[in-house]
Write the C-alpha coordinates for this entry.
Amino acid sequence: MNTNIYTHSQPTDTDNNALVLKTVAFFGRALDEYMRIFSLTHAHLRGRRVLDVAAGPSSFTAEACALGCDAIALDPSYGMTVDALAGHIQIDYANMFAQIRAKPHLCQLRTFASIDEAEGSRRAASARFLGDYAAHFVHGRYVGGALPKLPFEHGEFDLVLCGHFLFTYAMLFDYEFHVAACRELVRVSRDEVHIHPVSDTAGRVYQHLDALRADLLHDGIESELIAVDQAFFGFFPDLCGYELKSS
Ligand SMILES: C[S@@+](CC[C@H](N)C(=O)[O-])C[C@H]1O[C@@H](n2cnc3c(N)ncnc32)[C@H](O)[C@@H]1O
Protein backbone atom coordinates (compact mmCIF):
# COMPACT_ATOMS: atom_id res chain seq x y z
CA MET A 1 0.00 0.00 0.00
CA ASN A 2 1.26 3.50 -0.81
CA THR A 3 2.24 5.12 2.50
CA ASN A 4 2.12 8.62 0.95
CA ILE A 5 -1.62 8.56 1.36
CA TYR A 6 -1.38 8.46 5.16
CA THR A 7 -2.09 11.81 6.74
CA HIS A 8 -2.56 13.37 10.15
CA SER A 9 -4.54 16.39 8.98
CA GLN A 10 -8.26 16.78 9.60
CA PRO A 11 -10.59 18.45 7.10
CA THR A 12 -11.63 22.03 7.87
CA ASP A 13 -14.61 24.00 6.56
CA THR A 14 -12.49 25.41 3.75
CA ASP A 15 -10.84 22.08 2.85
CA ASN A 16 -11.40 21.47 -0.84
CA ASN A 17 -9.97 17.97 -0.57
CA ALA A 18 -12.52 16.38 1.76
CA LEU A 19 -16.22 16.33 2.37
CA VAL A 20 -16.70 18.10 5.70
CA LEU A 21 -19.02 16.02 7.87
CA LYS A 22 -19.19 17.30 11.44
CA THR A 23 -21.53 14.53 12.54
CA VAL A 24 -22.15 11.05 11.17
CA ALA A 25 -24.45 11.43 8.17
CA PHE A 26 -27.72 9.50 7.98
CA PHE A 27 -27.02 8.45 4.43
CA GLY A 28 -27.30 5.04 2.79
CA ARG A 29 -26.86 2.88 -0.25
CA ALA A 30 -28.72 0.15 -2.12
CA LEU A 31 -27.95 -3.59 -2.16
CA ASP A 32 -26.14 -3.55 -5.50
CA GLU A 33 -23.63 -1.03 -4.14
CA TYR A 34 -23.20 -3.14 -0.97
CA MET A 35 -22.48 -6.19 -3.16
CA ARG A 36 -19.61 -4.27 -4.80
CA ILE A 37 -18.12 -2.54 -1.76
CA PHE A 38 -18.17 -5.73 0.35
CA SER A 39 -17.25 -8.13 -2.50
CA LEU A 40 -20.42 -10.15 -1.90
CA THR A 41 -22.14 -12.74 -4.06
CA HIS A 42 -25.71 -13.94 -3.65
CA ALA A 43 -24.30 -17.08 -1.98
CA HIS A 44 -23.20 -14.84 0.91
CA LEU A 45 -26.84 -13.88 1.47
CA ARG A 46 -29.30 -16.61 0.54
CA GLY A 47 -30.49 -18.48 3.64
CA ARG A 48 -27.89 -16.80 5.84
CA ARG A 49 -28.24 -14.59 8.88
CA VAL A 50 -26.64 -11.23 8.13
CA LEU A 51 -26.20 -8.13 10.31
CA ASP A 52 -25.72 -4.67 8.79
CA VAL A 53 -24.19 -2.39 11.48
CA ALA A 54 -24.45 1.41 11.08
CA ALA A 55 -27.01 0.66 8.41
CA GLY A 56 -28.60 4.14 8.34
CA PRO A 57 -31.19 4.60 5.57
CA SER A 58 -29.63 1.87 3.40
CA SER A 59 -32.05 -0.45 1.59
CA PHE A 60 -29.63 -3.40 1.88
CA THR A 61 -31.65 -5.16 4.59
CA ALA A 62 -35.00 -4.69 2.84
CA GLU A 63 -33.60 -5.96 -0.46
CA ALA A 64 -31.62 -8.82 1.09
CA CYS A 65 -34.69 -10.07 2.99
CA ALA A 66 -36.66 -10.00 -0.28
CA LEU A 67 -33.93 -12.28 -1.75
CA GLY A 68 -34.30 -14.87 1.01
CA CYS A 69 -31.65 -13.60 3.42
CA ASP A 70 -32.37 -13.35 7.15
CA ALA A 71 -30.99 -9.81 7.47
CA ILE A 72 -31.12 -7.40 10.40
CA ALA A 73 -30.03 -3.76 10.44
CA LEU A 74 -28.69 -1.84 13.43
CA ASP A 75 -28.32 1.91 13.83
CA PRO A 76 -28.49 4.35 16.78
CA SER A 77 -31.34 6.17 15.00
CA TYR A 78 -33.63 3.17 14.88
CA GLY A 79 -36.54 3.56 17.26
CA MET A 80 -37.30 7.05 15.92
CA THR A 81 -40.55 7.55 14.03
CA VAL A 82 -40.63 7.23 10.25
CA ASP A 83 -41.28 10.97 10.00
CA ALA A 84 -38.26 11.79 12.17
CA LEU A 85 -36.02 9.54 10.07
CA ALA A 86 -37.41 11.07 6.86
CA GLY A 87 -36.50 14.50 8.30
CA HIS A 88 -32.92 13.36 8.94
CA ILE A 89 -32.69 11.98 5.41
CA GLN A 90 -33.92 15.27 3.95
CA ILE A 91 -31.32 17.34 5.82
CA ASP A 92 -28.33 15.00 5.46
CA TYR A 93 -28.90 14.21 1.77
CA ALA A 94 -29.22 17.91 0.93
CA ASN A 95 -25.95 18.64 2.77
CA MET A 96 -24.11 15.66 1.27
CA PHE A 97 -25.11 16.30 -2.33
CA ALA A 98 -24.48 20.06 -2.07
CA GLN A 99 -20.89 19.23 -1.03
CA ILE A 100 -20.48 16.53 -3.67
CA ARG A 101 -21.61 18.97 -6.38
CA ALA A 102 -19.28 21.67 -5.00
CA LYS A 103 -16.32 19.21 -4.87
CA PRO A 104 -16.97 16.71 -7.67
CA HIS A 105 -13.25 15.85 -7.87
CA LEU A 106 -13.64 14.01 -4.54
CA CYS A 107 -16.06 11.43 -5.83
CA GLN A 108 -15.38 8.39 -7.93
CA LEU A 109 -18.70 7.68 -9.57
CA ARG A 110 -17.53 4.35 -11.05
CA THR A 111 -20.77 2.57 -11.83
CA PHE A 112 -22.83 5.77 -11.90
CA ALA A 113 -22.92 7.88 -15.05
CA SER A 114 -23.33 11.15 -13.14
CA ILE A 115 -23.81 12.68 -9.70
CA ASP A 116 -27.53 12.91 -10.53
CA GLU A 117 -27.60 9.14 -11.09
CA ALA A 118 -25.70 8.49 -7.83
CA GLU A 119 -28.13 10.76 -5.98
CA GLY A 120 -31.10 9.02 -7.60
CA SER A 121 -29.81 5.60 -6.48
CA ARG A 122 -29.28 6.72 -2.90
CA ARG A 123 -32.60 8.54 -2.66
CA ALA A 124 -34.36 5.43 -4.01
CA ALA A 125 -32.52 3.36 -1.39
CA SER A 126 -33.67 5.67 1.42
CA ALA A 127 -37.28 5.57 0.17
CA ARG A 128 -37.21 1.76 0.15
CA PHE A 129 -35.64 1.78 3.62
CA LEU A 130 -38.39 4.03 5.02
CA GLY A 131 -41.15 1.78 3.65
CA ASP A 132 -39.50 -1.37 5.00
CA TYR A 133 -38.73 0.25 8.36
CA ALA A 134 -42.40 1.28 8.71
CA ALA A 135 -43.49 -2.30 8.00
CA HIS A 136 -40.82 -4.28 9.86
CA PHE A 137 -39.45 -2.26 12.79
CA VAL A 138 -42.02 -3.94 15.03
CA HIS A 139 -40.80 -7.36 13.84
CA GLY A 140 -37.24 -6.63 15.01
CA ARG A 141 -35.71 -6.27 11.55
CA TYR A 142 -34.41 -2.81 12.55
CA VAL A 143 -32.65 -2.66 15.92
CA GLY A 144 -31.59 0.46 17.81
CA GLY A 145 -28.00 0.19 19.06
CA ALA A 146 -24.51 1.56 18.72
CA LEU A 147 -20.93 0.39 18.53
CA PRO A 148 -18.86 -0.45 20.45
CA LYS A 149 -21.52 -2.59 22.24
CA LEU A 150 -24.01 -4.56 20.20
CA PRO A 151 -27.18 -6.10 21.68
CA PHE A 152 -26.52 -9.56 20.25
CA GLU A 153 -25.12 -12.87 21.43
CA HIS A 154 -21.71 -14.24 20.49
CA GLY A 155 -21.64 -15.65 16.95
CA GLU A 156 -25.30 -14.82 16.22
CA PHE A 157 -24.65 -13.93 12.58
CA ASP A 158 -23.08 -15.72 9.62
CA LEU A 159 -21.93 -12.42 8.14
CA VAL A 160 -21.52 -8.94 9.66
CA LEU A 161 -21.19 -5.81 7.52
CA CYS A 162 -20.25 -2.27 8.51
CA GLY A 163 -20.12 0.35 5.78
CA HIS A 164 -19.15 4.03 5.77
CA PHE A 165 -18.88 4.43 9.51
CA LEU A 166 -15.61 3.02 10.94
CA PHE A 167 -12.53 4.79 9.51
CA THR A 168 -14.77 7.12 7.47
CA TYR A 169 -15.37 9.22 10.59
CA ALA A 170 -11.91 8.79 12.10
CA MET A 171 -11.97 12.50 13.04
CA LEU A 172 -14.90 11.85 15.42
CA PHE A 173 -13.92 8.52 17.01
CA ASP A 174 -10.55 7.67 18.54
CA TYR A 175 -8.32 4.63 18.05
CA GLU A 176 -9.65 2.81 21.14
CA PHE A 177 -13.18 3.14 19.81
CA HIS A 178 -12.13 1.66 16.47
CA VAL A 179 -10.39 -1.34 18.06
CA ALA A 180 -13.30 -2.00 20.44
CA ALA A 181 -15.79 -1.68 17.59
CA CYS A 182 -13.89 -4.16 15.39
CA ARG A 183 -13.66 -6.66 18.27
CA GLU A 184 -17.40 -6.32 18.85
CA LEU A 185 -18.24 -6.90 15.17
CA VAL A 186 -16.13 -10.07 15.30
CA ARG A 187 -17.75 -11.19 18.58
CA VAL A 188 -21.26 -11.33 17.09
CA SER A 189 -20.09 -13.04 13.88
CA ARG A 190 -19.50 -16.77 13.52
CA ASP A 191 -17.87 -16.40 10.12
CA GLU A 192 -16.89 -13.13 8.44
CA VAL A 193 -16.92 -9.40 9.11
CA HIS A 194 -16.60 -6.99 6.20
CA ILE A 195 -15.82 -3.31 6.82
CA HIS A 196 -15.68 -0.73 4.04
CA PRO A 197 -13.93 1.58 3.36
CA VAL A 198 -10.66 1.80 5.32
CA SER A 199 -10.38 5.48 4.41
CA ASP A 200 -11.96 8.81 5.29
CA THR A 201 -14.10 11.15 3.20
CA ALA A 202 -11.01 12.30 1.30
CA GLY A 203 -10.01 8.73 0.45
CA ARG A 204 -7.07 8.81 2.89
CA VAL A 205 -6.34 5.43 4.43
CA TYR A 206 -6.88 5.27 8.21
CA GLN A 207 -3.56 6.29 9.69
CA HIS A 208 -3.62 3.63 12.45
CA LEU A 209 -4.69 0.77 10.21
CA ASP A 210 -1.48 -1.24 10.62
CA ALA A 211 -1.55 -0.85 14.41
CA LEU A 212 -5.22 -1.78 14.53
CA ARG A 213 -4.69 -4.92 12.47
CA ALA A 214 -1.75 -5.87 14.70
CA ASP A 215 -3.86 -5.37 17.86
CA LEU A 216 -6.63 -7.51 16.39
CA LEU A 217 -4.13 -10.21 15.43
CA HIS A 218 -2.84 -10.15 19.02
CA ASP A 219 -6.41 -11.16 20.00
CA GLY A 220 -6.38 -13.95 17.42
CA ILE A 221 -8.39 -11.97 14.85
CA GLU A 222 -6.88 -12.25 11.41
CA SER A 223 -7.75 -9.63 8.82
CA GLU A 224 -7.21 -9.21 5.14
CA LEU A 225 -7.22 -6.07 3.00
CA ILE A 226 -9.12 -6.58 -0.20
CA ALA A 227 -9.05 -4.15 -3.11
CA VAL A 228 -12.54 -3.46 -4.45
CA ASP A 229 -13.35 -1.58 -7.61
CA GLN A 230 -15.73 0.77 -5.86
CA ALA A 231 -15.08 3.70 -3.61
CA PHE A 232 -17.21 6.79 -3.48
CA PHE A 233 -14.77 9.00 -1.63
CA GLY A 234 -11.53 9.07 -3.54
CA PHE A 235 -9.26 12.05 -3.85
CA PHE A 236 -6.35 9.83 -4.85
CA PRO A 237 -7.17 8.50 -8.31
CA ASP A 238 -4.90 5.47 -7.99
CA LEU A 239 -6.59 4.27 -4.81
CA CYS A 240 -9.54 2.02 -5.35
CA GLY A 241 -11.64 0.99 -2.38
CA TYR A 242 -10.26 -1.28 0.30
CA GLU A 243 -12.30 -3.57 2.42
CA LEU A 244 -11.14 -4.97 5.74
CA LYS A 245 -12.28 -8.56 6.03
CA SER A 246 -11.71 -10.59 9.16
CA SER A 247 -12.52 -14.24 9.66
C1 LIG B 1 -23.10 7.12 6.40
S1 LIG B 1 -24.19 6.07 7.27
C2 LIG B 1 -23.78 4.51 6.54
C3 LIG B 1 -24.99 3.80 6.01
C4 LIG B 1 -24.70 2.48 5.29
N1 LIG B 1 -23.96 1.57 6.11
C5 LIG B 1 -23.97 2.68 3.99
O1 LIG B 1 -22.82 2.27 3.84
O2 LIG B 1 -24.55 3.25 3.07
C6 LIG B 1 -23.43 5.97 8.87
C7 LIG B 1 -24.39 5.53 9.95
O3 LIG B 1 -23.66 5.29 11.17
C8 LIG B 1 -24.58 5.49 12.24
N2 LIG B 1 -23.86 5.59 13.53
C9 LIG B 1 -23.45 6.70 14.20
N3 LIG B 1 -22.83 6.35 15.34
C10 LIG B 1 -22.84 4.98 15.40
C11 LIG B 1 -22.36 4.02 16.34
N4 LIG B 1 -21.71 4.39 17.46
N5 LIG B 1 -22.56 2.71 16.07
C12 LIG B 1 -23.18 2.32 14.95
N6 LIG B 1 -23.66 3.19 14.02
C13 LIG B 1 -23.49 4.50 14.24
C14 LIG B 1 -25.34 6.73 11.83
O4 LIG B 1 -26.58 6.83 12.50
C15 LIG B 1 -25.48 6.53 10.30
O5 LIG B 1 -26.73 6.02 9.97
